[in-house]
Amino acid sequence: MIRALSNRTYATLFTAQVVALLGTGLMTIALGLLAYDLAGDAAGAVLGTAFTIKMVAYVGLSPVLAASLVHLPRKAVLIGADLARAGVALALPFVTEVWQIYALIFVLQTASASFTPIFQATIPDILTDEDDYTQALSLSRLAYDLENLLSPTLAALLLLVISFHGLFAGTVVGFLISAALVARCDLPPFAGTTETRPFSERLTRGSRIYLATPRLRGLLALNLTAAAIGAFVLVNTVVLVRSDYGLGERALGVAMAAFGGGSMLAAILLPRLLGRVRERDVMLPAAIALTSLAFVFAAIIWGRSLPPWWLFLTFWVLIGAFYSAILTPSGRLLRISAHAEDRPAIFAAQFALSHACWMITYPLAGWMGRYAGLTAVLLVLAALGAMGVFAAMRLWPVHGDRVIEHSHPDLPPDHPHMKAHQTHGREHAHVFVIDNEHRAWPTHG
């Protein structure tokens, strides 16, 4: 993964991502303490509502923002989003009412919904070599896992000398440093002339390409699997550790570190593996293993019996590894499934559709877990994950070749596309993606 970092532009952007993620982690902890300060025992409901607002902003606004901002310079969009997030973090320590938290979180996540898809779509334009880009995807996964591991530790150290309001200052600094690092980069402009398309077409283009591409329909199904099991871990680990095992906060940190460590291990190993086998041959077995582990763990805790602590941590390491093996290669699929000018739209579609899966699984993991018990909710989520696996098997062809032979009965012989690719008759073959000349996936040939 060192070779990808030898690209100075990518190395700077990766550093900006890490710094911003650390700031976000500090804000997450500070937000929980702020919610408790304002709402007391109802803090969980406040945070639940805030996270729901986050998902609504991600799902509803990211395609709109991608269509609206495509004609602006990437650097200006990324810096503006960072400055907006810094402004929200600066305002959060001064809130006095719960509704103010909701309003600021909506603004914050709106900025993130504009930043993240454009940031993700920029990386394949910088790292044009597929192996380098695969390394970048693994580094991004590592960055998210390190944020989950380091932010709580950093927050605990800071809280020894400052109040939780001071954590928001760390968030502000993180976003400002991120903006400054982005400003140093020479980013490529958006490709093509997508701004000449009507807004309605720009708004739906990403999702249309996404849902018309078999491998991406399979990816969406696997996103559901990852979200189902991931939601159980992220929402209910605290219940398992604190209530069922009766252990303290340090044990909770160990459990989440086990999950994050498994994810990091998979991210480190994946670049070499993906250089030898196809994405489907990694992601689908990982999804099957992830769902199987969920069913096995549900069987173990049936009747409120608990496995030994070491076995519980082993489960969480394995779940983290297979969870990462599903999510990490997704960028490769997006990259090969659209032309450069359509990448911002298709990354925005992935951002929205994947978070739509979390909109289903997060409330299910939380509310059903509270009222029906952890075994019942894990069985339901595992069944939902299995549905995702079976859907991916059907939607994602085993022989999903990139170069596909096809014809264009709707195009005249003198069309530029026909002249560029014609070989014999009207049949020709090339790397197939959904675009203006290819509006449906070939069903034969």
Please provide a brief summary of the model:
By secondary structure, this protein is mainly alpha-helical. It contains 16 helices and 2 strands.
Low-confidence stretches: none
Rounded to an integer, what's the Rg over CA atoms?
22 Å
Task: State the end-to-end distance.
Answer: 38 Å
Coarse morphology? globular
Question: If classified by CATH, what would the architecture of the largest domain be?
Answer: Up-down Bundle
Protein model, in words:
This protein has 445 residues and is mainly α. The protein folds into two domains: 1-190, MFS general substrate transporter like domains (Growth Hormone, Chain: A, Up-down Bundle); 217-396, Growth Hormone, Chain: A (Up-down Bundle), CATH 1.20.1250. 76% of the residues lie in helices and 2% in strands. The chain is built from 16 helices and two strands. It has helices at residues 2-5, 8-39, 43-69, 74-91, 98-126, 130-158, 165-184, 199-212, 214-244, 249-274, 279-300, 309-327, 330-336, 343-372, 374-395, 416-421, and strands at residues 403-407, 427-431. A two-stranded antiparallel sheet has the order 1-2. α2 packs antiparallel against α7 and α9 runs antiparallel to α10. The longest helix is centred in the first third of the chain and has 32 residues, at 8-39. It is globular, with a radius of gyration of 22 Å. The mean pLDDT is 82. Its main location: membrane. Keywords: Cell membrane, Membrane, Transmembrane, Transmembrane helix. It is a multi-pass membrane protein. It comes from Aliiroseovarius zhejiangensis. InterPro entries: MFS (IPR011701), MFS_trans_sf (IPR036259).
